[in-house]
Amino acid sequence: ANPARVSNENTAVPNDLESWWMPFTANRQFKANPRLLVGAKDMHYTTHDGRQVIDGSAGLWCVNAGHCRKPIVEAIQKQAAEMDFAPTFQMGHPKAFEFASRLAHLAPGDLNHVFFANSGSEAVDTALKIAIAYHRARGEGARTRLIGRERGYHGVGFGGISVGGIVSNRKVFGPLLAGVDHLPHTHSLKDMAFSKGQPDWGTHLADDLERIVTLHDASTIAAVIVEPVAGSTGVLIPPKGYLQKLRQICDKHGILLIFDEVITGFGRTGAAFGAETFGVIPDMMTTAKGLTNAAVPAAAVFTRKHVHDAFMSGPENMIELFHGYTYSAHALACAAGIATLDLYRDEGIFENAKALAPYWEDAVHSLKGVKNVIDLRNIGIMAGIEMAPREDGAGKRGYEVFVKAYEKGLMARLTGDTIALSPPLILTRKHIDDIFGILKDAIQSVN
Ligand code: PLP
């Protein structure tokens, strides 16, 4: 018998689990014991066996306003009936302009131009390409080098994995982009374990950018890309002053600074963007996920005025940037996105995240002393709970905790032996209590 074939008698599990090659999943392990989600509302999912689980990860860090919110659902339904698709190459539609304008007003500083894509990976590729083309447009075509960071996650395109720094996402895919270098990551258990919010230690790690500039020469470097908070690697919070220092060094050498805000955008850190929380304005910002509350796939690259304007000097009948996607500014995405921004504003969702951040921090750090917990990290409404790897293999303890938590009613996110939490930002204190109550039980029940 094929273990991947599960009878659907009295269950919502389909007969054929074999055909779908699942992303970032241990397919054989999963299909032997599948976890299927069949419904969602606000802070909870419904599982295929009829249980309610609290969504500790906002889906994949993306459903910031909670699930199946009526205004977003209705906006999508209306748009689908009115105009499903409109091309955006040499054509346009009103909602795309409206959405971009709303986003430009929300963004800090002069990050006031928006290029649409459909996923974080596409947003990253877009930003990297704009960075290189920007320098060329200004007559500095030798600036093609890109600097990422160890442990960084920038999606799965060849650009993103080249500047990314998670080894398993890179090692089997060949030589990747040429001319990429990496900053060191900012994590050190010895120096910063159990820091609340931004660690005091680690600012000096930004100085490595000076070393890289000396090695390659500034005239060859286009951009530096970092996540303000490194999410997928397990929630690494930037040391105090670190992002400021990166900004200063980039300014000194004419290098563009890109913040990958795919996770930190739209309220996660307690303000609209991490750029605001940390008080550093990058030259470009990549976003996705919370952009449409994940109801329709969409991404947006924000650029500062000087970046955009550098492309606007040639003949007016020329296409300025030979880049775009069939689904850039998809009509459904724009409708969902505008409704999402309305909801964020009308319900004060970012403000709720900010107001609850101290309570969240206390809840996170209440796990100090629980067995096997070796670090706790938090900012806004996100957290990393790191457990010691077990001798039988890195990641096994984490996986067991993740499964136990799910059985007990909490969906969390797992990376290695770190549990990452990032629930919808409509949460209450009661939800925080529920999340940490279940997680503590789960950790304690695993060896
Ligand atoms: N960049 C960051 C910082 C992310 O966290 C992610 C996804 O988690 C991505 C890019 C890739 O986004 P997507 O999966 O939509 O391509």
What does this entry look like structurally?
InterPro entries: Aminotrans_3, Aminotrans_3_PPA_site, PyrdxlP-dep_Trfase, PyrdxlP-dep_Trfase_major, PyrdxlP-dep_Trfase_small. Belongs to the class-III pyridoxal-phosphate-dependent aminotransferase family. Keywords: Aminotransferase, Pyridoxal phosphate, Transferase. GO terms for molecular function: adenosylmethionine-8-amino-7-oxononanoate transaminase activity; pyridoxal phosphate binding. The chain has 447 residues and is an alpha/beta fold. The chain has two domains: 35-65 and 348-444, Aspartate Aminotransferase, domain 1; 72-346, Type I PLP-dependent aspartate aminotransferase-like (Major domain) (Aspartate Aminotransferase, domain 2), CATH 3.40.640.10. The chain is 35% helix and 15% strand. The chain contains 15 helices and 15 strands. It has helices at 27-32, 58-61, 70-82, 94-106, 120-137, 158-163, 189-192, 208-216, 242-253, 274-278, 305-309, 331-346, 349-365, 396-408, 429-444, and strands at 37-41, 44-47, 52-55, 113-117, 145-149, 180-183, 221-226, 256-260, 284-287, 299-303, 373-379, 382-387, 410-411, 413-415, 418-421. The strands form three sheets. It has a seven-stranded mixed β-sheet, with helices on both faces. Helix 9 links the parallel strand 7 (221-226) and strand 8 (256-260). The longest helix has 18 residues, at 120-137. The radius of gyration is 22 Å and the shape is globular. The two termini are 32 Å apart. Residues 1-8 have low confidence and may be disordered. The structure holds pyridoxal-5'-phosphate (PLP). Pyridoxal-5'-phosphate (PLP) binds next to helix 5.
